[in-house]
Structures are given as structure tokens and as C-alpha cells.
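[Meeting: bench + compute handoff]

Bench side (C.D.) handed over the final construct sequence. Compute side (W.E.) agreed to return the predicted structure before the next meeting so the bench team could plan truncations. Sequence as handed over:
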Amino acid sequence: METIKFSYVIPQVFAQRVNELDSDIWNTDATFEKGHLYLVEADSGKGKSTFCSYVVGYRHDYSGSVTFDNDNTKEYDVKEWVDMRQHHISHLFQELRLFPELTAFENVEIKNKLTGFKSRDQIVKWFDMLGIGEKLDAKIGRMSFGQQQRVALIRSLVQPFDFIFADEPISHLDDTNSAIMAEIMMTEAKAQGAGVIVTSIGKHMDLDYEKTFKL
């Protein structure tokens, strides 16, 4: 997949106040290209969570179109979305969506088994780089949110992707861990020739964004 394009997308929740929208994404054309780095900034209530849901296909309550390489995503069936999320779009969720009863490594391993994309040695190396090497066998439910964010990043990297979508990925991290996390993510994205889309309502990864969109 080479492009993600929003064409005059208007969420239903904003349908009655279209004239009030002042956005680089809603009710206009916005294109994200593979191999490039983007920041999507938003104030609270401007639809960041909605935007995220539209990209990964969890919601379709909008007018306009969201297209992947000119294919309208509203026409995708379940099988096509499964393939898209397994091989083309990786998503680091703001709310993480980890399994609290499983260990940190098991949370990553579950996803890696779908494609066998990364070796155990590579996964353990990322844990060590992020300062959570001793947490491999710790239950996620007993880890801090910042530690869980690092596990969630690793999980997002154990698959092939054309775009990686990071939704407020460093909200609970200090500057040191944020920088390490950014380095790991960008190294993997470059290795795959992938596009990177980071969202933020405040603190964001310190990266050389090629374009910033205001929601």
C-alpha cells in the first residue's frame, strides 16, 4: 500500500457544524504517503480518536471517503481488513489493548505468531533497549502504564507494515525512554520503507516530521 487518502471526510458527529470545521483533515483532501513521517495534532474534542478509528477500520460513521491506493475502505469485507491489519497497517493504540493476565513477552508473542515476523532474540533486544528486559515474564497488569506503553510499541513492530500508526505513544514516558522508543520505531519503519503517522494532543515524539496536520 502506497497511500492513505481522506477525501472530504466529515464524521457524523460534526455533520451539523461543518462550517465550524477548521481542519487539515476533515472536509478537505489529506494524503499520507508510504515512506514519509507525519504528525497529526489535535485539541481535545476535535476527533483524534475518531480519525484513528477511521484509519484502521473500526468505525465508518462518516461521509466522504477513506481510500487505500484508491480502494474505498468502506467496501472492505472482514477478510480484507484482517489482511490489512496483519500485513499493511500496524497500530499502537492509545489505550494499549494489552492482555493484563498475560506476561509482557506473551502479549508480544501472540501477535508475532500470526506472521513469524521477528525472532525471539530481536524481541528480547528491544525489551532490553527500552529498559524492561527484566519484565519479560511479568504480568502486564502489574506493570506501570509507561512500561506497558513500551511493551505495546514492541508488539506493534512484530509484523510487516506499510504504515505504522502511533496514537499518543509517549504520554507516560520520560524524555530518555521517549527518545529510545522513537529511535526503535523509526529504524524499523525505515527498514520496511514504511510511512509513520503519530498523533498527539500535547506531548509528542521529538522527530523531524515532514508534515503536520491539524485536526
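W.E. noted at the follow-up: The CA atoms of residues 37 and 196 lie 5 Å apart. C.D. will use this when planning the next construct.
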